[in-house]
Design goal:
The chain is mostly beta strands. The protein has helices at residues 59-67, 115-124; strands spanning 7-13, 18-21, 27-39, 46-57, 74-87, 93-106. The chain has a single domain, classed as OB fold (Dihydrolipoamide Acetyltransferase, E2P) (Beta Barrel). The protein contains 2 helices and 6 strands; from the N terminus they run ββββαββα. A 5-stranded mixed β-barrel has the order 1-3-4-6-5.
């Protein structure tokens, strides 16, 4: 039985994806995903953010790049983790994981603002006043 290398993440794009092509003409869309996590409870509630570099090859990369035209777009991605290793200019060994995305789903529309923006907008356009509250 072989091992399993499969990851699923939901997060928001950190920047607009960068589209490039290999010498053979294969598209590569590169972007980073911010994945928020909340842990603890009550007054001890904490938040952390994990940033993950991602790459989508082929037609999927072109489609992703076409529809993600800004940062903060909420997406679901799945794929395989890959470890890149290299030596920096000083000869130090460096390593970094990235996700090779083979499947993605847009979780908000192309021109749709984030949920936080919608909530904030709905509160700012509240048609009720304090006198409308019965208590």
């Amino acid at each position: 039985m072989s091992d399993l290398n499969r990851c699923i993440f939901i997060g928001r794009t950190v920047h607009t994806p960068e589209l490039s092509y290999t010498p053979s003409g294969t598209a590569i869309s590169k972007f980073s995903l911010a994945i928020n996590d909340t842990y603890g409870s009550g007054e001890n509630k904490k938040e952390s953010v994990c940033f993950l570099d991602c790459e989508i090859f082929g037609k999927g990369g072109e489609i992703f790049n076409q529809y993600v035209t800004a940062h903060g777009v909420r997406v679901g991605v799945s794929g395989k983790l890959k470890l890149d290793m290299w030596d920096d200019k000083d000869g130090n060994k460096k390593r970094k994981h990235k996700l090779l995305v083979d499947n993605f789903q847009f979780l908000q529309g192309k021109n749709e603002s984030s949920t936080a923006d919608k909530v904030e907008k709905s509160f700012s356009e509240n048609p009720f006043s304090d006198s409308d509250v019965p208590f």
